[in-house]
Hints:
Structural class: mainly beta
Low-confidence stretches: 1-25
Radius of gyration: 22 Å
Shape: globular
CATH architecture: Beta Barrel
Amino acid sequence: MLVKLNILRLFYILLLCFSSGLLSGQDLQFSQYYSAPLQLNPALTGGFGAKYRVSAIYRDQWRAPLDKSIASFGAALDLRFEINSGAFSGDAAGVGLQFITDQASPVDLSTNMIAVSGGFHKSLARNQRKYISAGAQIITGQRNILYENLVFQDQFDGVSSFSGATGEDLPSNNFGFSDLAVGLNFVNAVTTNTQYFVGASLQHVLEPQVSFYKKDTDESQHDKSDSPLKRKYTLHAGSTLRSSDNLRISPRLLFVNQGESMRALVGSVFIIEPNHTDAFNFHMGAWLAGVRDFEGGPKLDDLGALIGLGIGELFIGMSYDLNLRDVVKYTSGQGAFELSISYWGNYEDEGGACPTF
């Protein structure tokens, strides 16, 4: 039984370690993507009707199949500066700092990234309710793994444990990389009750190498093997419409293409305002996501649900993605739970340059 359990664990370890190659360099994607705006699109940096924004998001997934779940955490701070002089009067600029960590257990395969982003928001109307924005982001990252949690066949003592030493030639367990992202966003607050927005971003412009192994032909052992984190193209769009004094509806669309992988998400958020004001509101939402599988055909991937609470400039959201695919023959525990918190400081204008959620 112990041998069987260790082999099963080794299977998951290999699945995690080599998933970037098998899935053409897929990387982290939050379901509450507007609660991680700098990770979604650098053009959203400073794209809001306030002086500053602080946001944090936590994602926990695959808790049942693995000894420890895959955990991801992101935190960001971005500032908005109004420009009130000369030809740029009515425009705004934004700067932001973001930290993201992604840890895949049981081998503690982790990726940590720090990003600095900047955005410029050009006003297209005198009332400053229509903006086109452009942004860029510079990223530095590090990947590492703990080898002591790995087991190999030559460690098996022939009886009941993997206690021997391994003869595997393992590479250095950490390395750094640099990356770049760019994006565009357009928002039009037609009235105080109607707003629509659309944006696009290109991430991993530099396609950094994400393999621990060096190239076999590299005598100096400085170059990584050919395993790039492929460019990711993202399109996001939606609107916010007031249907009554107490209800706003916000349909959303997300499309992501990275290498051979593809993901599309369609959903909507309902914002309930019981006191005829947005100072206190409830958020309820649902979405359906589909992917392109290994054979190239479309498949439903997950069904998500959201509940959230807005109190003044503070928003707290919780969501869960129910996995619709039988990936590893588990009947439960393959889903993903997310918790997000966002706060807008010195909030002034509802006609900001991006959705508040």
